[in-house]
Specification:
By secondary structure, this protein is mostly helical. 46% of the residues lie in helices and 11% in strands.
């Protein structure tokens, strides 16, 4: 069961909304439960990431499609896994950025890492604020 909660001033967690409150009442008082807590992703921030990829794609001429650029930037930012092929050679895979695979905290690190890589390897001399301004214009962030 998944329940949305918020942290209170007393370092406890309280359910948000009537549905979550009703679900919490199903748990017996005094029982111990193990919880996995993560901050749900912000969909607008997810859109912002793809707007960033679009801006960076227009600033480069090496990659033929945005997906390849996204994978490369993701891996260069340190978000990848490696497996060893039967012949002993390493194979690298960009981490999934799906909502279920990457929480908001990690996604923010990816976003900032991609900008850092881009400033070093794609758009040297550009300013981070200028890139973010272009991205914000695309998706209507102020």
């Amino acid at each position: 069961m998944e329940i949305d909660v918020t942290r209170t001033a007393y370092n406890t967690f309280a359910p948000i909304g009537e549905d979550n409150y009703e679900d919490c009442k199903k748990f017996p008082l005094g029982e111990v439960f193990r919880c996995k807590i993560w901050k749900p992703r912000n969909y607008k921030y997810h859109q912002k990431f793809f707007a960033l990829i679009a801006v960076l794609f227009d600033m480069q001429d090496h990659f033929e499609n945005k997906k390849a650029l996204r994978y490369w930037l993701t891996m260069k930012a340190g978000f990848f896994s490696m497996v060893v092929a039967p012949n002993g050679s390493p194979m690298y895979f960009a981490e999934s950025i799906s909502f279920s695979k990457m929480d908001n905290v990690k996604f923010e690190k990816l976003f900032n890492g991609v900008i850092d890589v881009a400033l070093k390897e794609i758009c040297q001399g550009s300013d981070k604020n200028v890139i973010e301004s272009q991205v914000n214009t695309i998706i209507g962030f102020s």
